[in-house]
Each structure stands twice: as structure tokens, then as C-alpha cells.
Design a protein that fits this description.
Two copies of one chain form a homodimer. Chain A is an alpha/beta fold. Chain A has helices at 39-45, 63-66, 69-78, 93-104, 160-165, 173-177, 192-195, 218-221, 238-244, 249-259, 277-284; strands at 2-7, 21-26, 29-33, 53-57, 85-90, 112-117, 124-127, 131-137, 145-151, 157-158, 182-183, 189-190, 196-197, 204-208, 226-230, 263-267, 290-292, 298-300. In chain A, strand 7 (124-127) and strand 8 (131-137) form a beta hairpin. The interface between A and B is medium-sized, with 34 and 34 residues.
Chain lengths: 302, 302
């Protein structure tokens, strides 16, 4: 599992700071999360292959999280993309993107499939054999979701000595790895648990931006390996966080602690601060394992 | 008069090439022409003061000419702009921008005034004491206008010897400069032409992008000091220019020659070519005074 931060600043794109966008590689997927202005240039800069992106998740319809989407969709068309593209985002996203296509008289030659979100409860929005994606309802000035990416339980591992001892035909090993009980050479039913153990522990990643401090999300993100939680402000500006429905670094760390996550990554910084180190210092007064997002930085989780 | 090229490439933004946008400074105005994705970053990079922009002219609603507009309007809001902003562009531009504002629940605290264009004849769309702006109807895949920026005739200059000889009170000098006949100290009417001469010759700039080769524009842009004319392709790719409604460098130069312009600036290059010098060489087979637009380049006209 690998996270690439394309942009992690709030509000407006600048020469050296980009609005929100990131790519999470999980199993065979390359999911794009949010798409602020300039995202397609960041994708090129950080050598993300455009055709590997088949799913885009948009948290909310503030410009710094989606003004790059119409351009990216248009660039996919110019690159003669053929693969389907799924876009998950708040209701309205389909109208605004298709209006731009209509005005440009530029329709995609690939299938563009919108999944509009309206629920205020966490819901499963994507699933295949290996991965699940859930929404994380957040509290912001407009309807906003975070996203929880979870690997499914992988194959079980054979306890090879026990397998041999129980006289199981090699033809059944596949079934065992998939968790089934099997009949051995002596016609006896062998319980799966007796001869296998859990496989690699599945990894999980939660993206939570933008949001005010919201404890309701804790059960949803409980024990995730990595939590990206916005920290637009430092505690000294908590008075700004409240009306704008953003969080401070300390609040992000409090959520991380309550959810007992592995690592907290901070991001969505206001550009008013001259250094990011204050965010880390502040968060670490509450929760130890803190990393700072930076444009272009990658995080590998194992 | 000063032109700053913010972006002069076609299609998609890349790390080192930006889609169309430019700023023309004429008299006290700073007009922004087109606004592809990333324009606000280019404005910052090239130190254009955001609050000096009060008029934005959008040629057409293809993404590479206007996907940066919603973000720029939003950034003006974040910068607590108060001055009115006038946006000139094809019908539909108001709907698509206001839809994005509605979805973000982010209305501007300044007046945002749309001037939607629908005419297929050249029309005067802006005028004050010093400057006029006309549309230049172009031929592209969607409704498109170029823009002609013209300084008005300035004040006349006094032929000071003639003024003194004709015994004119200094109180009338202002009137003379404005072109009026005046009565002299002896009560005699003095013809303006007798005692003044033309002032500084007014400058003009024509922006023509995107367009197929279109001779109809020649009378509109006749004798302009500077013509920016798109040249997406070289002649070797004329077969691509025709269906996409773009021009070759040679076609741009042919228009420049017919219109007898001062300088031709080429731009809106396809990124398929490894060097821009081919564009200049090709155009110069038809018309001598050719310059190449490049992102960040400025041109001063006198």
C-alpha cells in the first residue's frame, strides 16, 4: 500500500503548494482521492500513469478539492483513453462535469460513470475481491465524505507440518488457503483452522478532509493503519477552525488517539504558517506517531 | 502596451507548458485573456497583481481556455476582493461558473458581472475614455471570439509656435489638445488643425485563438500593431488543422500579411513538436516580422 501526496494545502494553488489530491495504491488499484486545480500536472510530475486510474473519489465540491477534475477527464479523452472511469462524489458532480462537457461539445470516448453520494451514514461504495471502500461522513460547510480503503482478508497460510500430518492431497491446498474445510485421503473431514493460519494482516487507510473535529468518525476509522486527517490550523487559530469547519493539529491527533490508529498523517494546511513543523509538534502532544504530508511525498505502509 | 504570455500551448497543462492565458496592459487596464487551468499560479509566478484585473475575456469554452476561471474567481473571493469583476465570454459561461459556486456554497463578496456573447458579427463589448474592445468572430469547433484591443486617439499636440503666433490664451490649451477650435485674444476663431498636430498614434492588439484559417477577420484586424494568431500545427499537419478547426503557422502568417499587421506573434502550439523554431521559419516564408509566444515571455509595444 502506497500513498502519494500530490497536494496537501488548503484554499488556492500556488507556485510551490498544491490543493488537495492524492493517490492511494492498494492491491492492484490506483485510487485518486480529490482533484484540486493542477492535479493532472502533479500526476505527470510524480510519474503516475494516467491509465492506471479507474476510480476517482471526491470528498466535496469546494474548488480546492475538485477544480482539476473537468480538466483531467478532458485530458483522458485527448489521450484516447478507452477504460471506464468511475467518479464518486457528492450529488451535483455529474451535472457540473457534464455541463462543462456540453459547453465544450467534447464528450468522452470512454465510459464515464458517476456515483453520486447523498447518505450521511457510512456506506460501502466500492468492492471487489480484494478491496472495499467506505464513506466516512464528515462535518464541513458543504456535504463532505472522507473515504476508508480496506484490504480484504487475504488467503490463509498453510501450517505445512499439520497439512502433511493430516494426509491432505495437494489438490486441496487451494481450497484450504481460501478457508474451506476439506476431506483428506482417508475420507476424514479436516477443519480448516487445524491446518491453516491467518494470512497477511489486511491494511487500511482513512482519508478525512475537510472536517471540523468530529468524534462520530472514530468507530468507522478504528484501528486503521494510517489516518490522513486534515489540520488546516494550529490550536492558536482554533477560533478560525470552528466557523470554517476545519480542524487543528491537536484535534486531528485527538481523533487519531481515540481511534487508536497506526500512523497519523497531517495535511490540508493553511498557507499562513511559515513552517509545517509546528503542526507535528502540536499533534505529538496528544499522539506520538505523526507524519507530515508534503506535496510529492510518498508513504509506504506494510 | 505590454503583453505577458502566461500560457501558449494547446490541449492539456503539463509541467513546463501551460494552456492559453495572457495579460494585456493597455492604458490603465490589465485585461486577462483566456484562463486555462493553472492560470492563477502563472499570474503569481509572473507577479501580476490580482487586484489589477477587472476584466476577463474568454474566447471559447474549451477547457484549455477556461478551466482556470472558476478557481481564479474563487481565489479572488478568498483574497477578500471588493472590486467588480467583468467576465466576457460565450453564452453558458455564467451558468457553468454560478453552478460551481452554488455547489460550493461560495458566493463572491464582490460584484461578478457576466457579459455573455452570442453575436457572429464583430461588436464593441467594452469602451471607456481611452480604450475600446471588439470581438473578432472566429471559426472553431464551438462558438469562439478573438478580441481586438484598441487605444483611442490620444490628445492632440500643440504646435507651440503657431499657438503663440495666434495669440491664444493659455487657458484654452486644454481645449486645443482635446481637438476644439478656440477664440483667441483678438476674438478670432482659430481652427484646431492650424495650431495642433496628431498625438501619439494609438496602439492596437488582436488576439485570435482558436481558429481555422479565416480571411473574414482581415478587415477587422487590418493594420493592428500586434496580432497573436494561433498556429497549432505546422503545414505538414494541415490535414489535422482542418477537422480540428485550427491553423498552421503558414496560415497565421498569411492572415498577418493580408491584414498588414506590425508584428505577428504565434502561439497555441501542439505539444507534438520538439522545437518552436519550425513555426517561426515556416511563418517567415510568408511574413517577415514574426515572434514566438512562450510561457512567461513579455512583449512591449510602442
Amino acid at each position: 500500500m502506497k500513498l502519494t501526496i500530490l497536494g496537501c494545502y488548503s484554499a488556492t494553488p500556488r507556485e510551490l503548494t498544491n490543493p488537495t489530491s492524492q493517490v492511494i495504491e492498494i492491491k492492484n488499484h490506483m485510487f485518486l482521492i480529490d482533484c484540486g486545480e493542477g492535479t493532472q500536472v502533479q500526476l505527470r510530475k510524480h510519474k503516475v500513469k494516467f491509465n492506471r486510474i479507474k476510480h476517482i473519489f471526491i470528498s466535496h465540491l469546494h474548488g480546492d478539492h475538485f477544480f482539476g477534475l473537468a480538466g483531467l477527464i478532458s485530458t483522458f479523452r485527448l489521450l484516447t483513453r478507452e477504460a471506464d472511469l468511475h467518479v464518486y462524489g457528492p450529488k451535483g458532480i455529474k451535472e457540473v462535469i457534464t455541463l462543462q462537457m456540453k459547453l465544450a461539445d467534447s464528450w468522452t470516448n470512454y465510459q464515464l460513470i458517476f456515483h453520486e453520494l447523498t447518505s450521511t451514514e457510512s456506506e460501502l461504495i466500492f468492492e471487489d475481491d480484494e478491496v472495499e471502500v467506505y464513506t466516512i461522513p464528515l462535518h464541513h460547510r458543504v456535504y463532505t465524505n472522507g473515504f476508508l480503503f480496506k484490504e480484504k482478508e487475504g488467503e490463509r497460510k498453510l501450517k505445512i507440518e499439520a497439512v502433511l500430518k493430516n494426509n491432505i492431497d495437494t489438490a486441496y491446498y487451494r481450497k484450504l488457503k481460501q478457508g474451506f474445510d476439506v476431506v483428506n485421503e482417508d475420507g476424514k473431514l479436516i477443519s480448516n483452522k487445524l491446518v491453516t493460519k491467518s494470512g497477511k494482516k489486511p491494511l487500511s487507510y482513512a482519508f478525512c478532509s475537510d472536517t471540523a473535529y468530529k468524534e462520530d468518525i472514530v468507530p468507522i476509522i478504528k484501528n486503521v493503519n494510517v489516518l490522513y486527517h486534515e489540520s488546516t490550523f494550529l490550536e492558536q487559530h482554533e477560533r478560525l477552525a470552528e466557523p470554517t469547519k476545519h480542524s487543528t493539529a491537536k484535534q486531528a491527533a485527538t481523533i487519531a488517539k481515540q481511534a487508536d490508529v497506526g500512523t497519523l498523517i497531517l495535511g490540508h494546511y493553511s498557507t499562513r504558517y511559515d513552517s509545517l513543523k509546528y503542526f507535528k509538534t502540536e499533534a505529538q502532544t496528544i499522539f506520538k506517531n505523526v507524519e507530515l504530508a508534503e506535496d510529492g511525498k510518498t508513504f509506504e505502509f506494510n
